[in-house]
Structure formats: structure tokens, C-alpha cells
Specification:
The strands form 5 sheets. A 5-stranded antiparallel beta sheet has the order 2-4-7-8-10. A 4-stranded antiparallel beta sheet has the order 12-11-13-16. Strands 3-15-14 form a 3-stranded antiparallel beta sheet, with no helix packed on it. The chain starts with 8 loop residues before the first helix and ends in a 9-residue tail after the last strand. The chain has one domain. By secondary structure, it is an alpha+beta fold. The protein contains 3 helices and 16 strands. Strand 14 and strand 15 form a beta hairpin.
Length: 319
Amino acid sequence: MKKQTGFTMIELMITIALGLVVVAAALMMLFSGQKNVALQKSSASLQDDQNFGLAYIAKNVRQANLFTPSAEVKAGTRYAGIVFNAENLDSNLMLVSDFKTKYVTQASNASNMKVKGTTSATNNDQLVVQYRPAEAGYDCEGKVIGPTTYVVERYFVRTDTNGGRSADERAALACASSHYSGSLTAAQDLETGTNGIYGSGQILMQRVDLFKVRFLTQSGAGTASSPYTYRYMTAAEYKTAADAAVTTTPVGNTPRILAIQLGVIARAVDPTTESSVTTTQEFNLFGQTFVQKEGFPSRYIRTPIVQTIALRNALGDRS
């Protein structure tokens, strides 16, 4: 009778163990690959959202000072392309009582980021621009505008009213706009209540943790004794200088603005469990280091992006 052969119990157990090791390794590679794909997809989606959002904003901001009487963009100049105070608007416009504290270019509401080494949240900036379009078109809210109308657009961060997440997670960059005639001969309201630039506006970019603005400024007379000097000033620094100039007699002078830089730190759509994405990420923006403030929920992929916009309508000596 022929002897039968086969696996012993020990051999079978070793085979099963080796098989489980191979399966476990394959599953780990699969999960790791899926996680990497998800991270790359989130990063790509975030960059696409940022590039699209900032490109749309830049298109409108680039029109600042278009067809205004003076090429100088500065606080106190009538119809200037960036609004820092009521003196930049038509003198016949009637404004709300808190206009200069809420609806001009300045550091505004608290953000989801803080400057490294501090405990309190830093401020988002608010940018208010003004221009007169060359032809009929649409403003940042999609409202129809005409070539004889001055357009005022306010870019700011607010909470998106849609969505079920926390208010911090629903921070978004929005734009609200107003129009007024370019030849006012009598007092007129720049809209009232919650209309126009006083309203909640249209969301342009979601999941924004920080929105910062700074200006390339020019000082001096351009002579041998007073040559031009150039420096970047934050929205807060320029607003402080503008407010100080308005209180002097005669009214003081502020630097001329030649370009605007917009900086944004935004988040991906969904949080991640990837350990490399920490809750203390550091980002450099305009020479400062920002980190996520304490208590912000979950881990998110974040990316800073900066756009520099030369104000072609602010060059030369038009008057």
C-alpha cells in the first residue's frame, strides 16, 4: 500500500502565518496609498480653489482707480482707488455713522490664525476698492454696472451661513458692493441698512483662515533732495497713518500706493487623520509666521498663497 504524504500541522500553521503577513503588508500598502491619494487630492483641490478665487478677486481689484480724476492712490484723495476714509468718496455721499470704523480698508475681524508666540487671534484685513468701469459689466456680486457709475467693493471675511460645522470652519472670503453716480450735485445715501457694501455680500472663497493685505508705497518728491523711497505697509499701518493725517492741520500727507499684495491661508474641504498634518502648522506670510489658534477643530491641510497686483491706474501724473 502506497504511503500518503501531506502537510503537517506545523507546516500548515507556518503557511497560514506567512500568508497573513503578506496580506497585512498588502493592506498596509493599500491604505497608505489611499491616504496619499486623498492628501494629494485635497492639496490639489485646495490650490485650485485658491488660484481661482484669488484670480477672480485680482481681476476686479486690478481696476482700482480706473477712470478716476487723479492717478494718486492715497488716503484723502477724492475718488481714490482704495478707500481708507470718507474723503476718498464723493463729498455728497451720505454714509452710515460707523462707516470709518467698519467699512473702510483696515485690519478687521479676528481670524482662525495667530502670530507665532502670541496667545490671541490675529486680525483678518478688509480691503475696499473703488473704480469707474470702462464699459458696462458686472461687479464682484454679479450686479450690472455702467461706465458712468463709481463702483465700491468691500472684500472681507465672514461666516458662511450654510453648512453644519462650527463657525470657525465656515469662515469665508466675501465681497459686497455699492454703486453711485459720478456726478452728484446733491446729497445722496450710499445705500442704507444692510444693503450694498454694508451687507453680507457674495462669498468668493470658502474655508479661509486668514486674509491679509499690504501695499507697496512711494514717499518723497523724486528730487535730489527728496528722492523716492519705497516700502511695504500693512493695511493696519496705512490706516493708522491715514487717520493721523486727517487729524492734522493742514491735512497731512500719506504715501502713494502703487501695488496691492493679497495673502490668504485657506483649508482643504475635509479634515485628515494624517499625523504629518499637525495642529500647530506654521506659515510665513508677509514676513510674519502664523500658526493655528488653540481650540480650532480637527486637522486640515492648509496652503498660503500670495498675489501681487500692480495698480496700472495709479501710475503717472494724471490729474
